[in-house]
């Protein structure tokens, strides 16, 4: 069975997301044609919403998502024939715990960079949970043994890696810097420029290079409006949350409390 993929992708405009959704359609074809159980890369919430809009158009399959914790940001979608029971499907997701005699506190970037340095693609890695003296990482089971064998250093510090059950995962500590700012408008380019103290021209370059996301959705329009609870990420700068909108100053500027994740 071959799907008319263009029909399912016609409403998606972002080229990167089209590639991701083509992979989902490839998985769907395998389920329908070969009656296989398949699973996706780890996807962010926006990518999963797009995936569900496609998956829900097929009655001959079922699916569920797995990311370790219910509130996980990155999850993999497991897709299977409709006549199978979910309970009989082997979970393709695993998790590891990384410990060591750390001389300094290691960051999310340290752990992720060390794993990617092994040649593993980002899409194979789920959420990373940081704790005081260890980290827990969700990943696809098919790379578990490779990571256990080859990951022996993180941030130039020796580490020990062991498999843990998904039930042992604990929500980590989220580190951020809180910052109070005022902006003339709630345009996303205006907020980004103020948070990262960069010029509007440099900020515009980020939009042209498709490096800006709001609530995980790629945004090309610098005039896109944002507000309280919006999560904004800029590739190369980081990401931040508009934690509170405190209203306007006497001069009509918007007062915002920002949480910049570190």
Automatic annotation (TrEMBL):
UniProt-listed Pfam families: YlmH_RBD (PF17774)
Keywords attached to this entry: RNA-binding
InterPro entries hit by this protein: Nucleotide-bd_a/b_plait_sf (IPR012677), RqcP2_RBD (IPR040591), S4_RNA-bd (IPR002942), S4_RNA-bd_sf (IPR036986)
Record has RNA-binding as a keyword: yes
SMART domains membership: S4
Boundaries of every RNA-binding S4 domain copy: 186-247
GO molecular function: RNA binding
The name this protein goes by in its record: RNA-binding protein
Lineage, uppermost ranks: Bacteria, Bacillati, Bacillota, Tissierellia, Tissierellales
């Amino acid at each position: 069975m071959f799907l008319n993929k263009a029909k399912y992708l016609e409403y998606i405009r972002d080229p990167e997301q089209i590639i991701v959704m083509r992979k989902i359609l490839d998985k769907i074809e395998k389920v329908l044609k070969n009656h296989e159980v398949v699973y996706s890369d780890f996807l962010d919430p926006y990518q999963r919403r797009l995936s569900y809009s496609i998956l829900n158009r097929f009655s001959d399959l079922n699916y569920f998502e797995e990311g370790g914790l219910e509130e996980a940001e990155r999850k993999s979608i497991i897709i299977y024939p409709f006549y199978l029971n979910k309970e009989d499907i082997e979970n393709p997701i695993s998790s590891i715990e990384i410990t060591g005699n750390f001389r300094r506190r290691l960051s999310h970037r340290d752990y992720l960079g060390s794993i990617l340095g092994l040649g593993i693609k980002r899409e194979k890695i789920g959420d990373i949970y940081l704790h005081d003296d260890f980290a827990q990482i969700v990943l696809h089971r098919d790379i578990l043994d490779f990571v256990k064998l080859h990951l022996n250093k993180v941030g130039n510090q020796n580490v020990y890696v062991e498999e843990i059950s998904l039930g042992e995962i604990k929500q980590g500590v989220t580190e951020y810097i809180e910052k109070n700012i005022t902006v003339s408008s709630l345009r996303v380019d205006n907020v980004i420029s103020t948070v990262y103290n960069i010029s509007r021209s440099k900020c515009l370059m980020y939009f042209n290079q498709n490096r800006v996301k709001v609530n995980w959705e790629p945004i090309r329009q610098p005039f896109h409006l944002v507000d309280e609870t919006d999560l904004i990420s800029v590739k190369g700068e980081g990401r931040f949350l508009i934690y509170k909108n405190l209203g306007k100053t006497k001069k009509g500027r918007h007062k915002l409390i920002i949480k910049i994740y570190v």
